[in-house]
Design brief:
By secondary structure, this protein is of the alpha+beta class. Helix content is 18%, strand content 15%.
Length: 119
């Protein structure tokens, strides 16, 4: 945050990345004032936050203090048989697209095995 080459756009939503074949700027909307602003730049890094989108499952699935769904070690199984969790709702440590994809694959395999065993 102390690097003068980096600017943070708080309370903003990215509307559009500008440029053809190379980034020349962005258009952002301030979510508090609804005002649009175009910002010239040559690079964009978007942070989506670190709060898992799990409130729908509160009281149903076991979660940790931060709201991440608890799964059995080395598995995607939750406290409810037939319900699996993976990716950003379950992984509070890595929170990366590539690990979420691998975790999703694990959940798919766990679900397949669950369904096969149910017949």
């Amino acid at each position: 945050m102390n690097n003068e080459k980096i600017s943070f756009q708080w309370n903003s939503a990215l509307e559009e990345v500008l440029g053809d074949n190379v980034v020349t700027g962005i258009r952002v909307r301030n979510v508090q004032t609804n005002q649009l602003e175009e910002i010239p730049l040559s690079g964009v890094f978007v942070a989506i936050g670190h709060t898992p989108n799990t409130s729908l499952f509160t009281g149903l699935l076991d979660m940790d203090e931060q709201g991440y769904i608890r799964t059995q070690p080395h598995r995607s199984t939750t406290n409810i048989p037939g319900v699996f969790a993976s990716g950003d709702v379950q992984d509070s440590h890595y929170r990366q697209a590539i690990t979420a994809a691998g975790s999703g694959c694990m959940a798919a395999i766990d679900a397949e095995r669950y369904l096969e065993a149910s017949h």
